[in-house]
Amino acid sequence: MENVSSTYYLPLVLFSIIIAIVDSYVALNLGIRINKAKGNVRYIWLITGAFAMGLGIWSMHFIAMLAFHLSIPVMYNVTLVIVSIIPAIISSGLALYIMSVFSKRKAQALLSALFIAIGIVSMHYIGMKAMEMRAVIHYNPLIVTLSAIIAFITSLVAIYLLFFVSQNAHIPRIWRKKTVSALIMGIAITGMHYTGMSAAHFQVYPHFLSSPGSPYGSTLLAYSIGIGILIILGLVFIGTIIDKQFESQSIESERKFHSLIESANDAIIIADCKGSIVLWNKGAQTIFGYEEKEVIGQNLQIIVPERYREAHRKGMQRYVTTRKPQVIGKTLEMHGLRKDGSEFPVELSLSSWQEHGNMFFSSIIRDVTERKLADEKINQMVYLDPLTGLPNRHLLNDRITQALEQETEHNQTIGIMFIDLDRFKFINDTLGHAVGDQLLVEAAQRIQACVGRSDTVCRQGGDEFIVLLPNTSSEEVSKKAKLILLLFNQSFVLNEHEMFVTPSIGISLYPSDGQDKDTLIKNADTAMYRVKEQGKNSFQFYTPEMNEIVSKKLQMEIGLRKALERKEFKLYYQPQVNVISGKLIGVEALIRWQHPEMGNISPADFIPLAEETGLIIPIGEWVLYEACRQNKSWQLEGFPPIRMAVNMSSRQFQHSNLIEVIHKVLKETELEPKFLELELTESIIQDSKHAITTMHKLKDMGIYLSIDDFGTGYSSLSYLKTFPIDTLKIDQTFTKNIFTDFKDASLVDTIINMAHNLELKVIAEGVETVQQLEFLQQRRCNEAQGYYFSRPISADEMSIVMKKQFLSKIR
Question: 186, 630, 750, 790: most buried by Cβ count inside 10 Å?
Answer without folding.
Answer: 186
